[in-house]
C-alpha cells in the first residue's frame, strides 16, 4: 500500500467527501469511501466509516 502523507489525505477527504454506499462517479466508475475505486467496489456495496478510513 502506498503511504499517503496526512496533509494530502486530509485534502483528498475534503474534496472527495465520504460516501459509505457505492455510487457511480460522472465517468461511470463505481466509487466508495473517500474516492476509492477498484475491482472491490460494486453496486449496492456498503461500508463502515472505519473501512472508509482504511481504503486510502
From TrEMBL:
A GO biological process held by the record: peptidoglycan catabolic process
Entry EC no(s): 3.2.1.17
Reactions that this protein is recorded to catalyse: Hydrolysis of (1->4)-beta-linkages between N-acetylmuramic acid and N-acetyl-D-glucosamine residues in a peptidoglycan and between N-acetyl-D-glucosamine residues in chitodextrins
Enzyme class: hydrolase
Keywords assigned by UniProt, alphabetized: Antimicrobial, Bacteriolytic enzyme, Glycosidase, Host cytoplasm, Hydrolase
GO MF: lysozyme activity
Homology family: Belongs to the glycosyl hydrolase 24 family.
Protein name, entry field: Lysozyme
Organism: Candidatus Liberibacter solanacearum
Amino acid at each position: 500500500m502506498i503511504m499517503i502523507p496526512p496533509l494530502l489525505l486530509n485534502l483528498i477527504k475534503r474534496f472527495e467527501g465520504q460516501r459509505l454506499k457505492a455510487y457511480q462517479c460522472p465517468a461511470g466508475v463505481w466509487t466508495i469511501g473517500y474516492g476509492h475505486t477498484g475491482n472491490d467496489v460494486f453496486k449496492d456495496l456498503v461500508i463502515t466509516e472505519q473501512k472508509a478510513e482504511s481504503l486510502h
